[in-house]
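The material for today's practical consists of a large collection of protein records. Read left to right, the backbone structure tokens trace the chain's path through space. An example says more than a description, so a record of this kind follows:
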Amino acid sequence: MPEVKRKCFVMMPFVPELHYFYLYLKQHIEQHHGIGCERADDRILTKPFLDKINDLIRDADVIIADCSGRNPNVFYELGIAHALKKDVILITKDPVGVAPSDIRHFEFIH
């Protein structure tokens, strides 16, 4: 039986300055941890974008959420992940004190 590859979903703002960071993160996770890594805009699918995101969150073994810039879409997706009791790694380039109070008590990687 073929080995099922574990999956990582990366939630982050779709801004140009984070594109190369995402590519670096993806390469590192895939090469050093053997986990498939993708972001919602990696593949073009003929289905509503929110359905695609929900599927990616549901199928992920681990999720990385970049909370930099307090992006509302990232926080919405993070809420879905928490509701589904997914393992989430929070990262940010911002001071942790600016994170919304509902998630400020979680550990962040800065």
Residues 16-33 form the longest helix (18 residues). The CA atoms of residues 5 and 35 lie 6 Å apart. The chain has one domain: 7-109. The two ends are 40 Å apart (CA to CA).
